[in-house]
Amino acid sequence: MKILVTGSSGLVGTALTRALASAGHTVCRLVRPQSAGGEGAKEGFAVAWNPASEELGGAGVGADAVVNLAGASIADGRWTAERKALLRSSRIDTTRALVNALARMNARPSVLISASAIGIYGNRGAETLTEESKPGADFLASLAKEWEAEALKAEALGIRVALARFGIILAREGGALPKMMLPFRFGAGGRLGSGKQWMSWVTLEDVVGILRFAIENASVRGAGNVASVTSAINAAPVRRAINIVSPQPLQNAEFTKAIAKAMHRPALFPAPAFALRLALGEMADALLLSSQRVAPQALEKLGYRFLHPDLNSALSAILAKT
Questions:
Q1: What's the whole-model pTM score?
Q2: Which domain holds residue 24?
Q3: Comparing C-alpha atoms, which of 140, 162, 149 is closest to residue 298?
Q4: How far apart are the first and last CA of the chain?
Q5: Cβ count near 247 (within 10 Å)
Q6: Chain segment 139-191, per-residue pLDDT in tens
Q7: Would you say 189 and 271 are in contact if contact means Cβ atoms under 8 Å apart?
Q8: Is 101 within the bounds of a domain?
Protein backbone atom coordinates (compact mmCIF):
# COMPACT_ATOMS: atom_id res chain seq x y z
CA MET A 1 0.00 0.00 0.00
CA LYS A 2 0.99 3.61 -0.51
CA ILE A 3 0.37 5.47 2.75
CA LEU A 4 0.56 9.21 3.44
CA VAL A 5 1.48 10.23 7.00
CA THR A 6 1.27 13.68 8.60
CA GLY A 7 3.11 14.26 11.88
CA SER A 8 5.67 11.64 10.85
CA SER A 9 8.48 13.15 12.94
CA GLY A 10 6.61 12.77 16.24
CA LEU A 11 6.73 9.84 18.66
CA VAL A 12 3.90 7.90 17.05
CA GLY A 13 4.71 8.99 13.50
CA THR A 14 8.33 7.87 13.73
CA ALA A 15 7.40 4.44 15.09
CA LEU A 16 4.54 3.99 12.62
CA THR A 17 6.51 4.94 9.50
CA ARG A 18 9.28 2.56 10.54
CA ALA A 19 6.80 -0.30 11.03
CA LEU A 20 4.95 0.38 7.78
CA ALA A 21 8.18 0.55 5.76
CA SER A 22 9.42 -2.68 7.36
CA ALA A 23 6.16 -4.36 6.35
CA GLY A 24 6.78 -3.41 2.73
CA HIS A 25 4.43 -0.44 2.41
CA THR A 26 5.41 2.71 0.56
CA VAL A 27 5.41 5.52 3.13
CA CYS A 28 5.05 9.16 2.08
CA ARG A 29 5.85 11.59 4.89
CA LEU A 30 3.93 14.83 4.34
CA VAL A 31 6.50 17.49 5.19
CA ARG A 32 5.85 21.20 5.69
CA PRO A 33 8.26 23.68 4.05
CA GLN A 34 9.68 24.83 7.41
CA SER A 35 10.30 21.35 8.84
CA ALA A 36 13.36 20.50 6.69
CA GLY A 37 12.26 16.95 6.04
CA GLY A 38 11.35 15.98 9.59
CA GLU A 39 13.95 14.93 12.14
CA GLY A 40 12.25 11.91 13.64
CA ALA A 41 11.22 9.83 10.64
CA LYS A 42 13.84 8.32 8.35
CA GLU A 43 11.77 5.71 6.50
CA GLY A 44 9.82 6.41 3.35
CA PHE A 45 10.22 9.61 1.38
CA ALA A 46 9.19 13.20 1.91
CA VAL A 47 6.26 14.76 0.04
CA ALA A 48 5.88 18.55 0.03
CA TRP A 49 2.86 19.61 2.07
CA ASN A 50 1.71 23.16 2.73
CA PRO A 51 -1.42 23.33 4.92
CA ALA A 52 -1.63 27.10 4.51
CA SER A 53 -2.18 26.79 0.75
CA GLU A 54 -3.60 23.25 0.96
CA GLU A 55 -1.03 22.21 -1.66
CA LEU A 56 0.06 18.58 -1.67
CA GLY A 57 3.03 17.42 -3.75
CA GLY A 58 2.38 15.26 -6.79
CA ALA A 59 4.20 12.33 -5.20
CA GLY A 60 1.20 11.92 -2.90
CA VAL A 61 -1.08 11.01 -5.81
CA GLY A 62 -2.32 7.43 -5.85
CA ALA A 63 -2.21 6.88 -2.09
CA ASP A 64 -4.28 4.04 -0.65
CA ALA A 65 -4.45 5.39 2.91
CA VAL A 66 -3.73 8.51 4.97
CA VAL A 67 -2.75 8.66 8.66
CA ASN A 68 -3.17 12.15 10.12
CA LEU A 69 -1.03 12.57 13.26
CA ALA A 70 -0.33 16.31 12.98
CA GLY A 71 -0.67 18.45 16.10
CA ALA A 72 1.52 20.44 18.49
CA SER A 73 2.26 18.69 21.79
CA ILE A 74 -0.44 19.26 24.37
CA ALA A 75 2.10 19.24 27.23
CA ASP A 76 4.95 21.37 25.87
CA GLY A 77 4.05 24.65 27.46
CA ARG A 78 1.62 26.40 29.79
CA TRP A 79 -1.80 26.96 28.21
CA THR A 80 -1.67 30.66 27.46
CA ALA A 81 -4.13 32.08 24.95
CA GLU A 82 -1.35 31.93 22.33
CA ARG A 83 -0.54 28.30 23.13
CA LYS A 84 -4.21 27.30 22.95
CA ALA A 85 -4.47 28.95 19.54
CA LEU A 86 -1.48 26.90 18.35
CA LEU A 87 -2.98 23.67 19.71
CA ARG A 88 -6.19 24.40 17.82
CA SER A 89 -4.65 25.49 14.53
CA SER A 90 -2.14 22.63 14.41
CA ARG A 91 -5.01 20.15 14.69
CA ILE A 92 -8.20 21.69 13.32
CA ASP A 93 -6.80 23.89 10.55
CA THR A 94 -4.29 21.26 9.43
CA THR A 95 -6.93 18.52 9.29
CA ARG A 96 -9.27 20.80 7.34
CA ALA A 97 -6.46 21.56 4.85
CA LEU A 98 -5.68 17.86 4.50
CA VAL A 99 -9.28 16.90 3.74
CA ASN A 100 -9.53 19.76 1.23
CA ALA A 101 -6.36 18.47 -0.47
CA LEU A 102 -7.84 14.97 -0.64
CA ALA A 103 -11.01 16.41 -2.17
CA ARG A 104 -9.00 17.72 -5.11
CA MET A 105 -7.57 14.29 -5.93
CA ASN A 106 -9.07 12.41 -8.86
CA ALA A 107 -8.13 9.06 -7.29
CA ARG A 108 -8.69 9.33 -3.54
CA PRO A 109 -7.37 7.09 -0.77
CA SER A 110 -9.80 4.55 0.61
CA VAL A 111 -9.19 5.34 4.30
CA LEU A 112 -8.24 8.22 6.59
CA ILE A 113 -7.08 7.41 10.12
CA SER A 114 -7.13 10.71 12.02
CA ALA A 115 -5.71 11.28 15.49
CA SER A 116 -7.85 12.43 18.38
CA ALA A 117 -7.63 11.89 22.15
CA ILE A 118 -9.57 10.51 25.09
CA GLY A 119 -9.56 14.08 26.37
CA ILE A 120 -12.78 14.38 24.37
CA TYR A 121 -14.63 12.76 27.30
CA GLY A 122 -13.60 15.37 29.87
CA ASN A 123 -13.17 14.71 33.60
CA ARG A 124 -15.57 11.84 34.36
CA GLY A 125 -14.50 10.35 37.69
CA ALA A 126 -14.94 6.56 37.90
CA GLU A 127 -17.47 6.34 35.04
CA THR A 128 -16.46 3.72 32.48
CA LEU A 129 -16.19 5.47 29.13
CA THR A 130 -16.60 3.79 25.75
CA GLU A 131 -16.84 5.08 22.21
CA GLU A 132 -20.59 5.43 22.91
CA SER A 133 -20.03 7.96 25.72
CA LYS A 134 -20.90 11.60 25.14
CA PRO A 135 -18.07 14.17 25.04
CA GLY A 136 -17.18 16.60 27.79
CA ALA A 137 -17.22 20.40 27.71
CA ASP A 138 -13.74 21.59 28.77
CA PHE A 139 -10.96 22.92 26.52
CA LEU A 140 -9.53 19.52 25.54
CA ALA A 141 -12.98 18.08 24.87
CA SER A 142 -13.95 21.04 22.68
CA LEU A 143 -10.63 20.83 20.85
CA ALA A 144 -11.07 17.11 20.15
CA LYS A 145 -14.68 17.56 19.00
CA GLU A 146 -13.73 20.15 16.41
CA TRP A 147 -10.68 18.12 15.36
CA GLU A 148 -12.82 15.04 14.75
CA ALA A 149 -15.49 17.05 12.94
CA GLU A 150 -12.94 18.19 10.34
CA ALA A 151 -11.70 14.63 9.77
CA LEU A 152 -15.23 13.26 9.38
CA LYS A 153 -15.85 15.58 6.44
CA ALA A 154 -13.73 13.15 4.40
CA GLU A 155 -16.64 10.70 4.52
CA ALA A 156 -18.49 12.90 2.04
CA LEU A 157 -15.62 12.14 -0.38
CA GLY A 158 -16.24 8.40 -0.12
CA ILE A 159 -13.29 7.86 2.24
CA ARG A 160 -13.57 5.54 5.23
CA VAL A 161 -12.73 7.53 8.37
CA ALA A 162 -11.54 6.15 11.71
CA LEU A 163 -10.89 8.49 14.65
CA ALA A 164 -7.99 7.30 16.79
CA ARG A 165 -8.65 8.50 20.34
CA PHE A 166 -5.26 8.08 22.02
CA GLY A 167 -4.83 7.55 25.73
CA ILE A 168 -1.54 8.15 27.58
CA ILE A 169 1.11 6.64 25.29
CA LEU A 170 3.93 4.89 27.11
CA ALA A 171 7.34 4.62 25.46
CA ARG A 172 10.95 4.77 26.59
CA GLU A 173 11.96 7.13 23.77
CA GLY A 174 9.50 9.94 24.46
CA GLY A 175 6.00 11.01 25.39
CA ALA A 176 4.67 10.99 28.95
CA LEU A 177 6.62 8.12 30.51
CA PRO A 178 10.11 9.68 30.70
CA LYS A 179 8.59 12.72 32.41
CA MET A 180 6.69 10.48 34.84
CA MET A 181 9.86 8.54 35.62
CA LEU A 182 12.07 11.56 36.28
CA PRO A 183 11.11 12.23 39.94
CA PHE A 184 11.40 8.52 40.72
CA ARG A 185 15.01 8.55 39.51
CA PHE A 186 15.77 10.96 42.34
CA GLY A 187 13.67 9.07 44.90
CA ALA A 188 11.01 11.80 44.92
CA GLY A 189 8.17 10.13 43.05
CA GLY A 190 4.63 9.60 44.25
CA ARG A 191 0.96 9.96 43.43
CA LEU A 192 -0.47 13.12 41.90
CA GLY A 193 -3.14 14.92 43.90
CA SER A 194 -5.53 12.46 45.56
CA GLY A 195 -4.26 9.59 43.41
CA LYS A 196 -7.85 8.52 42.80
CA GLN A 197 -8.04 9.79 39.21
CA TRP A 198 -8.17 7.07 36.56
CA MET A 199 -5.41 6.88 33.96
CA SER A 200 -6.04 5.17 30.63
CA TRP A 201 -2.76 4.21 29.00
CA VAL A 202 -1.40 2.23 26.05
CA THR A 203 2.09 1.25 24.91
CA LEU A 204 3.60 2.73 21.77
CA GLU A 205 3.95 -0.80 20.39
CA ASP A 206 0.19 -1.33 20.70
CA VAL A 207 -0.51 2.11 19.21
CA VAL A 208 1.42 1.14 16.08
CA GLY A 209 -0.31 -2.25 15.96
CA ILE A 210 -3.75 -0.67 16.31
CA LEU A 211 -3.10 1.95 13.61
CA ARG A 212 -1.96 -0.77 11.21
CA PHE A 213 -5.04 -2.79 12.17
CA ALA A 214 -7.26 0.22 11.43
CA ILE A 215 -5.62 0.82 8.05
CA GLU A 216 -5.91 -2.79 6.92
CA ASN A 217 -9.27 -3.73 8.45
CA ALA A 218 -12.26 -2.25 6.63
CA SER A 219 -14.44 -3.10 9.65
CA VAL A 220 -12.80 -0.26 11.57
CA ARG A 221 -15.36 2.31 10.60
CA GLY A 222 -18.66 3.57 11.88
CA ALA A 223 -22.21 2.80 10.93
CA GLY A 224 -25.01 5.24 10.37
CA ASN A 225 -25.40 8.49 8.50
CA VAL A 226 -24.19 11.87 9.73
CA ALA A 227 -26.24 14.71 8.30
CA SER A 228 -24.37 17.40 10.23
CA VAL A 229 -20.97 16.34 11.51
CA THR A 230 -20.54 19.01 14.19
CA SER A 231 -24.04 18.69 15.62
CA ALA A 232 -23.75 14.91 15.56
CA ILE A 233 -20.56 14.94 17.61
CA ASN A 234 -22.09 17.29 20.18
CA ALA A 235 -25.37 15.43 20.46
CA ALA A 236 -24.44 11.76 20.26
CA PRO A 237 -21.51 9.33 20.26
CA VAL A 238 -19.41 9.13 17.09
CA ARG A 239 -19.43 5.52 15.98
CA ARG A 240 -16.34 5.99 13.86
CA ALA A 241 -14.10 6.42 16.92
CA ILE A 242 -11.75 3.85 18.44
CA ASN A 243 -10.39 4.27 21.95
CA ILE A 244 -6.68 3.45 21.76
CA VAL A 245 -6.13 2.44 25.37
CA SER A 246 -5.26 -0.79 27.15
CA PRO A 247 -8.14 -2.81 28.63
CA GLN A 248 -6.78 -2.26 32.16
CA PRO A 249 -6.81 1.43 33.25
CA LEU A 250 -5.51 2.20 36.73
CA GLN A 251 -6.01 4.90 39.32
CA ASN A 252 -3.05 7.24 39.62
CA ALA A 253 -1.93 5.87 43.01
CA GLU A 254 -1.67 2.35 41.57
CA PHE A 255 -0.10 3.65 38.38
CA THR A 256 2.67 5.42 40.25
CA LYS A 257 3.28 2.35 42.45
CA ALA A 258 3.75 0.30 39.29
CA ILE A 259 6.32 2.79 37.97
CA ALA A 260 8.14 2.76 41.32
CA LYS A 261 8.20 -1.03 41.34
CA ALA A 262 9.50 -1.24 37.76
CA MET A 263 12.26 1.27 38.57
CA HIS A 264 13.05 -0.21 42.01
CA ARG A 265 12.37 3.14 43.62
CA PRO A 266 10.05 4.29 46.42
CA ALA A 267 6.79 6.16 45.82
CA LEU A 268 6.70 8.23 48.99
CA PHE A 269 6.31 11.84 47.93
CA PRO A 270 2.85 12.82 46.64
CA ALA A 271 2.51 16.00 44.60
CA PRO A 272 -0.35 18.10 46.06
CA ALA A 273 -3.00 19.27 43.64
CA PHE A 274 -2.52 22.93 44.64
CA ALA A 275 1.20 22.73 43.83
CA LEU A 276 0.51 21.21 40.41
CA ARG A 277 -2.05 23.92 39.65
CA LEU A 278 0.38 26.62 40.79
CA ALA A 279 3.08 25.25 38.49
CA LEU A 280 1.00 24.36 35.44
CA GLY A 281 -2.28 26.24 35.69
CA GLU A 282 -5.24 24.86 33.73
CA MET A 283 -3.02 22.18 32.21
CA ALA A 284 -2.61 20.49 35.61
CA ASP A 285 -6.34 19.79 35.93
CA ALA A 286 -6.71 18.64 32.34
CA LEU A 287 -3.64 16.41 32.06
CA LEU A 288 -2.67 15.33 35.59
CA LEU A 289 -5.73 15.52 37.83
CA SER A 290 -8.51 14.69 35.38
CA SER A 291 -10.03 11.21 35.66
CA GLN A 292 -10.84 9.16 32.56
CA ARG A 293 -11.59 5.47 32.91
CA VAL A 294 -11.70 4.53 29.24
CA ALA A 295 -12.40 1.10 27.76
CA PRO A 296 -11.29 -0.05 24.26
CA GLN A 297 -14.75 -1.43 23.50
CA ALA A 298 -14.57 -1.08 19.71
CA LEU A 299 -11.15 -2.76 19.47
CA GLU A 300 -12.22 -5.66 21.65
CA LYS A 301 -15.34 -6.21 19.54
CA LEU A 302 -13.19 -6.19 16.41
CA GLY A 303 -10.88 -8.81 17.90
CA TYR A 304 -7.69 -6.79 18.34
CA ARG A 305 -5.30 -8.62 20.70
CA PHE A 306 -3.24 -6.29 22.87
CA LEU A 307 0.48 -6.94 23.08
CA HIS A 308 0.65 -5.32 26.52
CA PRO A 309 -2.74 -5.38 28.28
CA ASP A 310 -1.46 -4.88 31.85
CA LEU A 311 0.81 -2.14 33.17
CA ASN A 312 3.37 -4.22 35.06
CA SER A 313 4.30 -6.33 32.04
CA ALA A 314 4.15 -3.25 29.79
CA LEU A 315 6.63 -1.34 31.95
CA SER A 316 8.94 -4.37 32.17
CA ALA A 317 8.97 -4.63 28.38
CA ILE A 318 9.54 -0.90 27.89
CA LEU A 319 12.33 -0.60 30.45
CA ALA A 320 14.05 -3.73 29.15
CA LYS A 321 14.66 -2.02 25.79
CA THR A 322 18.11 -0.56 25.25
A1: 0.91
A2: 2-171+200-245+295-306
A3: 162
A4: 31
A5: 17
A6: 999 999 999 999 999 999 999 999 999 999 999 999 999 999 999 998 889 99
A7: no
A8: yes
